[in-house]
Amino acid sequence: MTATATPTPALESLVATFAARPGEPAWLADTRRDALGRFESLGLPTARHEDWRFTDLSGLVAQPWVRAGVGGGAWAGAALPEGPRLVFVNGRLRPELGNTAGLPAGTIATSIADALARDPEKIRAHLGRLARSEDHPFVAANTALFEDGAFVWLPPGAGPDLTIALAFLTDPGAAPAAAFPRVLLVAGSGARATVAEVFIGRGGPVYLTGAVTEIVLGEDATVEHVRLQAEALQAYHVGVVCTESAARASLTAHAFTLGGNLSRSELRARLAGEGGSVAANGLYLADGTRRVDNFSWVEHAVPHCTTNETYKGILDGRSRAVFAGRIVVQPGAQKTNAYQMNSNLLLSEDAVVDTKPQLEIFADDVKCGHGGTVGQLDEAALFYLRSRGVREDEARGLLMWAFASEMVGRVGPAPLRARARELVAARLPSGARLVEAMA
Amino acid sequence: MSTGNGKGALLRVEGLRARIGENEILKGVSLSLGPGEVHAIMGPNGSGKSTLAGVLAGRPACEVTAGTVSYAGQDLLALAPDARAAAGVFLGFQYPVEIPGVGNLFFLRTALNAVRRARGEDELDAMDFLALAKEKMKLVDLDPAFGSRSVNEGFSGGEKKRNEVFQMAVLEPRLAILDEIDSGLDIDALRVVARGVNALRREDRSILLVTHYKRLLEYIPPDRVHVMAGGRIVRSGGPELADELERTGYAWVAGENPEVAGGPHRGGATP
Description:
The complex is a heterodimer of chains A (439) and B (271). Chain A has helices at 9-16, 26-42, 58-61, 112-118, 120-124, 137-145, 379-387, 392-409, 414-425, 431-438; strands at residues 66-67, 85-89, 92-93, 108-111, 149-154, 163-170, 177-179, 182-187, 192-201, 207-217, 222-230, 236-245, 250-257, 262-271, 277-286, 291-300, 306-315, 320-329, 337-346, 352-361, 367-375. By secondary structure, chain A is α/β, with parallel strands linked by helices. Chain A folds into 2 domains: 9-273, no CATH class; 379-439, no CATH class. In chain A, the strands form 2 sheets. In chain A, strands 1, 4, 5, 7, 8, 10, 12, 14, 16, 18 and 20 form an 11-stranded mixed β-sheet that branches. Chain A starts with 8 loop residues before the first helix and ends with a helix. The model of chain A has no long low-confidence stretch (mean pLDDT 93). Chain B has 271 residues and is of the alpha/beta class. Chain B has one domain: Rossmann fold, CATH 3.40.50.300. Chain B has a 6-stranded mixed β-sheet, with helices on both faces. The two termini of chain B are 35 Å apart. At the A-B interface, helix 7, helix 8 and helix 10 of A face helix 2, strand 7, helix 3 and strand 8 of B.
């Protein structure tokens, strides 16, 4: 394919940040060069691209991006639950902020740059296999440009009470800075663990996080993946999670989209072994002129698998959200059980949601369905609360929390659930008081 | 028409007119309620009883078009619903609202602390509040398990009404307006609710009982009874007025007030 993309300041500036990394294995250098070429030819998505139809990236493509600088320290606001954690600032590991002392023997959680230097073959088998640069410009950009990220290796039978937290913090510099953290999580057969990714940024100049995560689930593995996107409000955030499940593996993926000026959250899940299941949970909150785009694509390649998808959103002001959820049932994937639900609470007449559930079914013995709601805050409930003395903003916050709390409640490990609750409540009217009262 | 003892009244309603949408429901209601008094407002369906209760609590759908309401010397109509609650007004709902996802006790502590803050009092922490809530739940035989359930969600009719009185007990209002607190209750549930309300009667707490049936008044004897019809109070009197209504039904009211529809609705079981 020849290069057809229209050059934009974003495309040209991001391509210009590409640098050869002499220490890396030759196969990775090749992969990166290919990805860069792919990124150049694909260009950044426009509204003509079906999967990006409702999301206008013109603000992002107009920026002359630079590689994110080192960034400062002192990240009190990023408080993570106790336990093993890696902390990245502007896309690079900051070992002094993390702690992996509590990891069980055989389990690896480390900088992916380090892992590539020490044990590249463990990574070679998986990197770029699920997140393919061929048709995804942000995956291509991430593959070409990632400096660091996390490599998590769960040996067979690891867990069950294991939670690993990855924090990606951004301290934006003077120029619009871009970081492309990469995560590879490989769960051996029967391994059970929770991996959380938390994205937090400081206010100030605009910045871009282009994150890609690949999750490989071995047979009977159980992985809970919690994505807490609480970027600063000026941020652009594109996060792509690609997964593949072997037989009887169970994946629960949570996508909390709480911050960012424009945020895209993608889940691309493939059920490749019989008896596998995917539970995809999403919660998105937006106000002002913020944009939230949720894209999910779940492929049932084999029989006897289950998908349960629930996304909920609360939109205020002139915000706009997209839910595009596709479930593809391939020929022969009989006894598939798949359900998709998207519920929205619109707090203003100017907020818009485009909800687009799509079931593509090429098998005849399946149970598939979808549902969705768009509603307003219950005025009767609002008056009931106010008649008891609860101030209007607090009452609204309480009802918004009532709508959102179901999704927070689905997070398994209690400390992580508490962190999710704090981050969600922080985005609600009188949220601080709510959290205090719930404590 | 002025009713009750106007002197030193806690609540004084004068010439109140209100509409819901295009329909004028209250057509000049006047009423006054002294400290510690219990008044009953009776009347047939559609007479405006519940609208009056809603207007006093600040229900947004009820639009006041004329008249004044003075409460403890303030213009009640100028206050937002939450400010009325903070000032000591409580509305017991005829149909308590179910709020899935909001815990009953969590909600009530939020409410109590909002009211306490507005009054310049210290907030109660979780432990102190729990102790208070447990004590008040006993008043209406509410199972402590209801505390952790979502507000009114899946409660039976009787449980909802007991939950209203429980909330009243915690919030300690100066003026409680109980809108058909007896509707949908069987005789045992009515006894429990009435016992709760009676336990909350105090010299500095006034209660306005809105009811369709005299039955409630046998358990909560009022100081005065007002009869509403066609958006006005058409008669006021002592407790004996309720007995008269019991004998005659609301038909005589309709005779004097052609706007009043509906025949007699007699009370249910007489104990």
